Amino acid sequence: MQISLILCTLGRREVVDKFLDSISRQTLKPREIIIVDQNPEGFLDSVVQQWQSNLPIRHYRVNFKGVSRARNYGASLASCEIISFPDDDCLYVKDTISRILNCFTKSINIDIVIGGKISSYKDQHSFPLDNSVVKVRTFLDLLKSKAETSQIFFRKEFIIELLPNLFDENIGPGSNGDYISNEETDLLFRAIRLRKNIFHKPEIRIIHHSSQVSFHRALGYGIGRFRIIQKYKLGAGYYFLNLLQPFVRLINHFSLRNLSLCIATVIGRSGITLILQEIRAKLNKSN
Predict the structure, then answer these.
(1) CA separation for the pair 73, 78 (Å, rounded)
(2) Which string of DSSP letters, residue by residue, matches 18-41?
(3) What span, in angstroms and rounded, lies between the C-alpha atoms of 250 and 145?
């Protein structure tokens, strides 16, 4: 069993280099690394050339923007049984690939595996490796898994079933829509509705920073979550649970910066900004 890594990137050279370095240190290498390059011509060439002799890189430069569209394009090119979509600024610990392939090899009934996230290499030594596996059956289970795209691994049959609309191209950074996040939540929720076998296995570790690096970014991510709840008509229970969750996180990790991010997230998840936009649009139209 082999794995295809689909790396979509824009405006980042150094982090792509660091990611490829982490892949070069894997105990088990991927069969292919498909780089979907949305940069100007030549921007990434030096990094690709540096690693091409040591890693199985397939480099495709495209003339469109949008991470969801780029992932769909990369997925259509993948040839391996397992497919993953690492962010260009994430890192794999040395046994990430071997653990994920071992997980899929042991069970033919697994469609999707959600790994765990740590913030740095030093955290891997304190991260519990208890081999726990939790089945994701509901949207609440999905929220508990805290899944990000980099942590999710798919069996190819599932990918083929949903292509060419694997990721919703109106959601995600650079998309045509207003929602810069939660494209992976949208995909996983569709998988739940299709009764796919999804498991959360935290011992498969990916290094990735928090996405909420600014008030504006946290607001955008919050709006993305509101859109998912709205799109799937999940009801008041999930709506208020999503408003409460940032406060719980703030209590556990209080700081003035986190307070600012909490406020931004709650505003976004409330949908207030979208409602105000709709009101403004109607007023402008009437005038």
Answers:
(1) 9
(2) HHHHHHHT-SS--SEEEEEE-SPT
(3) 18
Determine if the peptide bond prior to 128 is cis (ω within 30°).
Answer: no
Please give the helix or strand (H or E) that residue 60 lies within, else none: strand 57-61
Tens digit of pLDDT at every position of the chain (287 positions): 999 999 999 999 999 999 999 999 999 999 999 999 999 999 999 999 999 999 999 999 999 999 999 999 999 999 999 999 999 999 999 999 999 999 999 988 999 999 999 887 766 665 555 567 889 999 889 988 989 999 999 999 999 999 999 999 988 888 776 678 899 999 999 999 999 999 999 989 999 976 667 898 899 889 989 989 998 999 999 999 999 999 998 998 899 999 999 999 999 999 998 888 888 888 887 77
Sketch out the chain's domains with CATH numbers.
3-207 (3.90.550.10), 215-286 (no CATH)
Q: How far apart are CA 270 and CA 100, in angstroms?
A: 36
pTM of the model: 0.90
**Angle of the 215-231 helix axis to the 256-270 helix axis, nearest 10:** 30
Size of the chain, expressed as the number of residues it contains = 287
User: Which residues does residue 6 pair with via DSSP β-bridges, in sequence order?
Assistant: 34
